[in-house]
Fold each of these.
Amino acid sequence: MISIKNLQKIFKSGTTQVQAVDDVNLNIEKGEIYGVIGYSGAGKSTFIRLLNRLEDPTSGEIVIDGEDIASLKAGRLRKARQEIGMVFQHFNLLWSRTVRENIAFPLEIAGTPKKERQERVDELIKLVGLAGREDAYPSQLSGGQKQRVGIARALANRPKVLLCDEATSALDPETTDQILDLLVDINEKLDLTIILITHEMHVIRKISHRVAVMEEGKVVEEGDVLDVFLHPKEKVTKRFVEQIMGDQDQDEAVETILAQYQTGQVVRLHFVGEKTNQALISEVSREFPSVSFNILQGKITQTSKGAYGTLYVHMDGTEEDINKAIEYISETSVQVEVNHHVS
Amino acid sequence: MFHKLFPNANVEDLVTATEETLYMTALSVIGTFILGLLLGLLLYLTSKQNIWANKPLNFIVATIVNVFRAIPFIILILLLFPFTEFLIGTIRGPNAALPALIIGAAPFYGRLVEIALKEVDKGVIEAAKSMGAKTSTIIFKVLLPESMPALVSGITVTSINLISYSAMAGVIGAGGLGDLAYLKGFQRWDFDVVFLATILIVIIVFIFQFVGDFISNKLDKR
């Protein structure tokens, strides 16, 4: 659907050169929510602005649905842009227009007839949940509502792809979640490809299917969100994962816990994209009533691909029963680590 | 009562003079608005990193604007006499004042337009670009509507300048309240007429200011 090859952007000012985007290669599938994460200055903002040529690439290819955006002439580029929606961090609504008129704006640009325009605007207002606020001006809306207008506006011309430039970074956590839910909803309903950039791992975790991590203009790591969560290779990725999971290598803490239990077994359970075994603990304890389970420490987080995280559980009972219970768990998709023998 | 206070005033003269002042002001405001918008848009669009970024053109327009703003209005009228005669066919009467009024006020208004356009949120212009808008669409559907309150308060300030310019033009034969105050008042040493002309001009200025503020506030939805 979208294929980006050797994309480069160099900013020149006087004698200094800044390589904002450095040889980026990505393939993004249709219907996918693709996240790009990086700290400020990593080049992610420039990257997303290259995709609809708000910045002109220095070199490289951006092929969207068979058309190389990077080589389009002005007139053709304007047509192509009508099929690429964009949502901005600061909403960028026209204050002089009402909600309805703001959403109609891209349709006016595309030359949609008035009657059709009105129908489409009504549809979009319903889709983003703004019914009743049609005739309000942006100044009368909350941040979340403004972003809903921004999203409706970006969807007006039925784009092939939606670009989100830090779409939730100016919103409070609760509103962020509502907007993310809306994006997931749109992605599923319209099978729309979404590319979003953010500096918040929370956003990636909550809605992305795949993620690319950017640092100094380069994509340093890329893959399924769960894989990246589970096996972060680069230092920067590890730091992002820690944002969500806390530090994974709190060995000291684990040692202290282990020292407290003289009998039984402490096991570490890995939940990796769990959708089916959410009730594992209660299931095992029902199956093995003679074994007692005590959750010691852990962190489980929900991603778009299911639950992900680690639990330390202390199991007490006869050695035979404990071993059976561990065997039972290891037959599920939850991974068990039993190297923490106590006695 | 009126005749006791202003023994030398002729009502008919006053009405004619007021009409002439309003006529000159109204037409020159329209002319200044159009020419000033063009100049302001040119200044803005050709500036650095803008849609039509063009250093030489920007320099030329800015120089013209600065030169015409530097010329005192009374000298500008004299300077433009040949041009006015060619354009209007005469150098007397309200119509003959129009070229000088517009050329005198448009560069000033052009600068105000430029300032107003610079205040338009860059993000909104970018959003319009991302939707595939043409430059003309950006000008007419983004830049002008989004800066309209400032454009209106700018033309209000400019129109008050124009009222005082028109009085100055009156002194050298353009008619209007300035003409009245000078010829029928000052020259005959009838200061009640000068005073009455002053009051009328002040009232006109107040009305312009009030209407301008009202429209500007009404348009501002921020």
Note: Chain B has a mean pLDDT of 93.
Amino acid sequence: MADEFEPNILAFCCNWCSYAAADLAGIGRMEMPTNVKVIRVMCSGRVKPEFVIKALSQGIDGVLVLGCHIGDCHYITGNHRTLKRFEVLTRLLGHMGIDPRRLRLDWASASEGDRFTEIVTEFTNTIKELGPNNLADYHGRKAARVSQ
Amino acid sequence: MEGKEEPRIGVYICECGLNIAATVDSEQVAKWAEDLPNVVVSKFYKYTCSEPGQVMIKDDIKEFGLNRVVVASCSPRMHEPTFRNAVKEVGMNPACFEMANIREHCSWIHKDKEKGTKKAFELVKMAVAKASLLTPLEPDEADVTHSALVVGGGVSGVQAALDIAGRGYPVYLVEKEPTLGGNAAKLGKWFPLQQCAETCLGSCAYCILVPDLRDCINDPNIKVFTSSEVEEVDGYVGNFKVKIRKKPTYVDPKRCVACDLCAEVCPVSVKNEFNLGMDERKAIYIPFKDAVPKTYTIDKENCIHFSEGECVENPKCKEVCFWKAVDFDQEEEVEEVEVGAIVLATGHDILDADERPQFLHQHPRVISTPEFERLSCIVGPTKGSLDIDGKTPEKVVFIQCVGSREKEGNAYCSRVCCMVTAKEAHTVKQKLPDAKIIVYHSDVRTFGKTHEEFFVKVKDEGVEYRRRERDGDIHVEEKGDKVVVKCEGHPDEEADLVVLAVGMIPREDTLEMSRILNVSRSGDGFFLEAHPKLRPIDTFTDGVFLAGSCQAPKDIPDSLAQASGAAARACGIISKEKLLLGENVAFVDQDLCIGCEACLESCQFNAISMVDKDGKMVAYVNEALCKGCGTCIASCKSGAIQQRGYNDEQLLKMISVLAESEPGG
């Protein structure tokens, strides 16, 4: 247990759906791994592709971007933009030498606390399988985290 | 400026009783937070949101000269407003307050206290990083125009206009047709009928509706535009600019006394739309005798004066008009008005029964429920007689759910047809006590107040209700000079009269209106409300509200209730002196903007436009239209667009502190 890799994961959640889903998961005391830390934005459309690239290149092991379901966006089509941008971004990551599986775009409505839990658990497991983000080596932090 | 000051941050880690403390060592987190950059004071407390908790923060702001406060406790969706108000009370700018969610997002979802404590610190670290970059913001305000526009002069629009005008605000009411009243004016009796005299076979339009329409047109606060359309809407909540195009009617309504002399001499007869084409009107006409405004209109398309340059008739309508009301030189007018709020009450269309050919609507013995309304009405084309070819019908068959609850087509329930059918069956019973009446239904939905009681009464009167499968076959065939209704699971019924209960459909111009007003439509084509449960009257465009059947099929009482609701919502805006603009709106650093227009394309709310700045085209955000989603910022390559409370610098800082090493390490 002691040397199990504990990934450092960032999640962007939109205020209206996925952040509320995360709150609901809390209210429902749905247990999940501690690896994911949430940054709240008003809409998933706010998440600049650069944020993801910066996060991964600075050594964060995985990035989740969670919005409202397509068709349910509080801002009508903000998440359509997100979807379009992330199709391109996913391909770009591959070219940059970053495993695209370190980024996951998904949707959770404000009533889907269980779905949020599921996504967080699944994604944490995926990143654990992928191992530490090798770009973290560049920042000299990988060793420190593995020995936790 | 507070913003230029060195950040002095106070950090408060809540225990929330044991809600947080059970899995997060708040004391430890507070201790770790002491060493974070710019943190002046860091404390933990049992219930930070309590009165003593708030007093502690307020005292610290004064004692330590704090200009930023971070509270790590529950979700900001819960207590952010509480703490913002608290810090504001002692003069700190509420925009400099930040929260870390260590309850819903940490203590409640984890069991391992060591890991939970570490995660809580990560979240606090990120919040502190963001807080150090927060800038004080003053909420922007906009002036408000104290008047409203109502689009549509049916029952809903008229109710909304009367309500708003009743509170003392000017209203502009725009109606496409020459008369107010809409679909409801064409109905016979309105259900529920409990208040009506059994013996009355008249039209509620005359008794109930027309007086309301007259109140509307006589109200000094309401300016009614008939034969007019909303052509353009510009601006935003509190300050809309509306272009209204008024078509010429070629009759001066101020002079016309509706004496009918002009129509008597008019040589042109065309189908009368008001009676659904079941009789004729002249090219100069009034939609119905008690139309409001009570004035004639020339139908330009059919008038010989316009088609041939000179009317053959002698004397002509213009000559017989004693009041000199006929004016062939009248021109189209465009009027611009300014309003603070808009009520959209454009109503519905009725499904054309010809579109469902299996029901043989073109046969003279097959009519639709709206046609029945006109025929049964004492002021209708047959003066209330249901006779066909001079013979009284002996058997009348009603078919429900024509164009509603379809497997392919309109999936929704039109909500009124069950009661319309029951009412019309009751009317047949009143008029023709010996007639046999059969109703084919696929579930009777009489859910409104007193509706079920009425339905039971109609059944007790001897109306036979036969249930059919919703998707089962039902169709009408011709047989001699009669028709036969063939329904799966039931014997064939030869009928003298078949009445099809046709559903409500979105108006033909819904798409056009949705574009003019930037209002969304739902899958079925009706206007979309902002939230199906919590905001059933609002649209996604602030300041635009929905009333009546333009949002979904509705009966009259429900439409009026929504209209009064929409009026109240509109008054909530136009009664204000100033409107506070959104706190998360986007803004442009025009020196950085390269004019690529990527943001323009990403904005759903038309909030961004290009403006000339010293000969360079740059983006400009209209704060009143901006909803604060931040989608434009993600598309900005130069970083020129930013968002209050969520700018790039703040979010990037949160990302990089998270990427840094573990606490205590």
Note: Helices of chain A lie at 18-27, 49-57, 78-95, 113-130, 135-138, 142-146.
Amino acid sequence: MNGVSAIPLEHALILSGILFSLGLLGILLRRNILFVLMSIEVMMNGAALAFVAAGSRWGAADGQIMFILILTLAAAEASVGLALVLQIYRRFNTLDTDAASEMKG
Amino acid sequence: MEIAFYLAAAVAVISTMMSVTNPNPVHALLYLIVSLLAVAMVFFSIGAPFAGILEIIVYAGAIMVLFVFVVMMLNLGRATIEQEKRWLRWQAWIGPSALSLVLLFELVRVLHPIGGDKHMVGYGTIGAREVGMALFGPYLLAVELASMLLLAALVAAFHLGRHED
């Protein structure tokens, strides 16, 4: 299986940069809080790709360790964020982030 | 294996773009799942099979199913799609696209002087064995902290998700 594949590290890092920028675009563009959460997942995925690529460059397992920690963070963030989405929908009957702007203090 | 990397990268970028711009929540989620599977293929092609398998099982299998469940519970219908289309006018595109493009340009520009031939990725494979040895050796404290984070998230999701009667 393992043919020598020679992919430059910077191509993998550029891919992760593109994914990160697309996630940022989604966060800035969307008003629906569900789409904002999805864009945050995209951004974390891009960052995780950078870690795994760098770990693969140096032949070390540390990059994948960091990927597992990012995965844990993403799971925790998604569960809490989606619970908040359900609460906001129940309280304001909409998913507009502007509707939640009355939560001051 | 190079062709696998570049194909999967193209699929990941295109499906992420569709996911970010789609007004339908379910379609956007499905595009996002395709994007995550493509990134898993990228992991396989750069010699990180354990990360690829975890990406499929945990990201595409568990987190995205959580999103799908929430979309089902919210019962988002045609009204949501119309609302999203109203919100996604072309005036709303200019600022975010410009800012993201500037950031992407800077990232690519910073990466440029690395030099293509010196740093290659994917010569060797780092399997589950090496990752497990490192995970439960020097990174044991990080594993414990991650378990506490998951416990806190579990309690928080239980507390926030219940009905107030």
Note: Residues 49-74 of chain B form the longest helix (26 residues).
Amino acid sequence: MALLQISEPGQSPAPHTRKLAVGIDLGTTNSLVATLRSGTAETLNDAADSALLPSVVQYAGDGGVVVGDQAKLNAAGDPLNTISSVKRLMGRGIGDIKSLGSQLPYSISAGDNGVPLINTCAGAKSAVEISAEILRVLAQRAQAALGGKLEGCVITVPAYFDDAQRQATKDAARLADLNVLRLLNEPTAAAVAYGLDRAEEGVIAVYDLGGGTFDISILHLSRGVFEVLATGGDSALGGDDFDHAIANWLIQAANLGEDLTPQIQRQLLDMARASKEALTLQDSVLVQFGNFSAELTRAQLETLIDPLIEKTLHACKRTLRDAGLKTASIDNVILVGGSTRMPRVRHKVQELFNREPLVNIDPDKVVALGAAIQADILVGNKSSDSLLLLDVIPLSLGLETMGGLVEKIIDRNTTIPVAKAQEFTTFKDGQTAMALHVVQGERDLVKDCRSLARFELRNIPPMVAGAAHIRVTFQVDADGLLSVSAQEESSGVRSTIVVKPSYGLDDSTITNMLLDSFANAKMDTQERALREQQVEAERVIEALANALEQDGEQLLSPGEFAALNQGLQQLREMHNGTDSEAIKLAIEQLAALSENFAAQRMNAAIGKALAGQSLSDFDPS
Amino acid sequence: MALSMSPSAIHHVQRHLQSRGKGVGIRLGVKTTGCSGLSYVLEFVDTIAPEDEVFAQEGFSLIVDPKSLVYLDGTELGFVKEGLNEGFQFNNPNVKNECGCGESFHI
């Protein structure tokens, strides 16, 4: 028996046509699923009425898979087969994982394409497969709660997730048999949940302090388009660190010494967490452990955690600076993540931004709720005049050109979906193939950007350098995923690649890519100028050498011929130098020197074309 | 001719109206579609039409157009939870049979 929901006026669906769509917050510590019921976004809770599903997956010996609270409880007893925080591994290569090293208690091996695999009793599992288990449980919960098959879902990802990490998230959804309507940035989802997308314009700071990660994102909203101005944070700072700080205080106060069993440590952390949560509402709490008992006041707690909060505030200031903004230009501050329930955190954030943060939506749920609102629009339950939220690509996408330079095809912050094309040509006479190297980043040189894919366009008809028209099209779909195609216009030969992102990006690269591009802007410009001159010099050398070889001796006096050859030799020697001005000058000198030769070649070519023709062959019309 | 609501249905309508931020009540109705002839309408109401019948509830109005009222007389709007699923349900004494899913019915 289908249960009904209240529709907007005039929009009651015909029977069996309501499309079920959900928003999923696939978190590092916890995951949630939410939907729109009678116009209200609500999380879909489990049988125990809990919205949060711990993002923990245990592979049991009997082939079964346990996800959530039970897996979390089993973690201590079965550490090798119980995987938590798998989001940190999404879209990462084996090299990145090694740098995370000791933090991961699992046995890891390298799979195909350098994808790291975690060895469990159920076999080697990738991060994508493990995430799919979490998604599967959420999907089952949603289908039970909505009484039907899901039409689609919106999954949220951190704003700083790159193509590889987004693709991995989509792969996980496909494995869980979920149709992804769109991936949505987490801070954007939070802004949608608060209805900020309905404003005409605004700058929004989203402060997201979760269990194990801290993210700060600065968004700019303009007519329904969210642009990520800057992101920052600390991937190893969260509520768990607060618990540790309190537990350490307890160990010192109760004189427990240093050799504590894991069980006792667990108990202490649980007690710390309980005290922390109690102090959100009370001014003091009684802490008891064995014979020890003491009062922990809110003031004491604040001394313990203030250094940690200070770290997040530093990151906020840095990110504001990256965005080129002052706190005064922030219109709204949103708090996300369970740890922002702490009064001290709220107070400090309010102090920094000099503005009362938005807190009236549950900070654990706000991202999932925003995703649910988007999902409902995307699946088509809302009338078409509802605002469709657009996202933007986080880093520019481009192509390598001669000299190791990057030609940007799609600029960062372009709204998606988008398709852009640009024409390229061949560099050498008779060139029949072209290697295309797709890169991502803001820097001018390929070596400073991230390599996404390489492919080749073959069977280009032989032509003189510069005569081929090769049209390269970059297309980014609504999820931020890229496909690139190249076509030679005269013959129609074509080659396409869907970017299978090359895994293997080290941690610092993602976060620092943007910063680097600002810091190195001047150097990049100089470097670009030099490379461009070098490439131009090579082109001139190539063309002149070919011409001299063809008819230099016939058209030129021995003196001229020798002078040109000498000039050519000089340019050859200096074109790999580092002085772009000198190379430019040498090219100009050689061009002046060869002017006469070029004119003679032109005359000879025309003479040859005209020889043996009569005037009547030229049609005066 | 009368319509009624269960206490939990009243509670949930109040909640949804509050989160929606506008609207004077909800409309119950019937339209002629579906695999078994008729289907229910359940919508928010922003403006009441002159011909509408209005039944006052706690803090909002229960609204029905006169043509639908013929099919709905005596109906109680309930709110039920079935496992994880939850939603509104028309308990309509006039229904002779309905399609398997309950989304459309026959009188």
Note: The radius of gyration of chain B is 14 Å.
